[in-house]
Design brief:
321 residues, globular, single chain, two-stranded antiparallel ribbon, eight-stranded parallel β-barrel, alpha/beta, TIM Barrel
């Protein structure tokens, strides 16, 4: 069976209208059952933890992918004393689809080490982008119309019409899915022993670029130790953030908070500070509520804002404004 991917225009529009009424003061602000926590990305040293705690943050996502288990355990003690949480470790890019087997082995070993270090941090997830593809003809972000086999996850078409020019990309997409699936499955026992989730992200790697396809890939592992790390701003150029959230649902274990300003024609754009872009934050907040997401919302980027302003803008997002 093939699965076409389309935006849910009616739902998005209806939610946007409701959000606009809230902002206009014509409807009361929503009360949410889900509880969100504030975090940033950085190295969890004493000074950083203290300053972020004072600015109103609840935790940190460690960017130190080479931290030792011993140093991670020491950082956890420092964080615990301050009432802060090192909630995740950002591993980032891997090359599981590389033809260089030594490079693949090197990345696998590094991810294993990160899972163990994350456990020592007291974190419950490692962000992993398993691979990327590029340097070949592929559709523009707004041209993607993907069809794939739900049982195998293999892509058959990526755009309307004749897909002959995308043959290499389709093959690369399917190879990346197979390679990533095989290696992540081998990492699951390490994740389970460390009690740390492998949180898969598709950050502009030209793979799994539509919500249903990414959900199919993550869900194919059928394991509580493989979930999705959803970056709100990264996906705007492909589909509205609320569509991703509602499609991924309970598979979302962590969220990055980022914003992206689409061009006036909706084609392309640029990253901007949170709440300054095209993300409809009231609708996103309601989507998080609807799928039952409670957890950390970690700002990535927005470097032009002070700690206090970042904290304030997160408060507004959490309140559905």
């Amino acid at each position: 069976m093939t699965q076409p991917l389309h935006r849910r225009d009616f739902l998005a529009t209806s939610a946007a209208v409701s959000a606009g009424l809230v902002l206009a003061g014509r409807l009361p602000a929503a009360e949410y059952r889900t509880k969100l926590k504030k975090a940033l990305i950085g190295k969890p040293d004493q000074e950083t933890l203290k300053s972020w705690k004072d600015a109103g943050f609840d935790g940190i996502e460690s960017s130190d992918r080479k931290v030792s288990v011993e140093d991670a355990a020491a950082a956890r003690k420092a964080a615990d004393k301050l009432g802060m949480r090192i909630h995740a470790l950002l591993f980032g890019w891997a090359n599981f689809n590389s033809p260089d087997t030594s490079k693949v082995a090197e990345d696998v070993a590094a991810v294993e080490a990160s899972l163990k270090a994350a456990g020592a941090y007291g974190a419950d997830a490692v962000l992993l982008v398993p691979c990327k593809v590029g340097s070949m003809p592929m559709p523009e972000a707004w041209e993607f119309e993907i069809e794939f086999d739900e049982k195998t996850g293999m892509v058959q078409k990526v755009a309307a019409g004749d897909n002959a020019k995308y043959k290499e990309y389709i093959e690369a997409q399917n190879h990346a899915t197979k390679a990533s699936r095989a290696i992540v499955e081998k990492l699951i026992p390490v994740a389970e022993k460390a009690r740390v989730v492998i949180a898969l992200e598709n950050v502009w790697n030209n793979l799994w670029v539509k919500p249903t396809l990414f959900r199919n890939f993550v869900a194919s592992f059928d394991s509580p130790w493989v979930q999705a790390y959803f970056d709100i701003g990264n996906h705007v150029k492909y589909a509205p953030a609320e569509d991703w959230i509602r499609t991924l649902g309970k598979l979302i274990v962590k969220c990055h908070v980022k914003d992206f300003l689409l061009n006036s024609d909706g084609h392309g754009g640029k990253f901007v500070d949170i709440r300054d872009g095209s993300v409809n934050w009231p609708v996103v907040r309601q989507a998080l509520e609807d799928v039952g997401y409670s957890g950390f919302m970690t700002i990535e980027g927005s470097g032009g804002l002070s700690l206090e302003e970042k904290s304030k803008r997160l408060d507004l997002i959490f309140a559905g404004k």
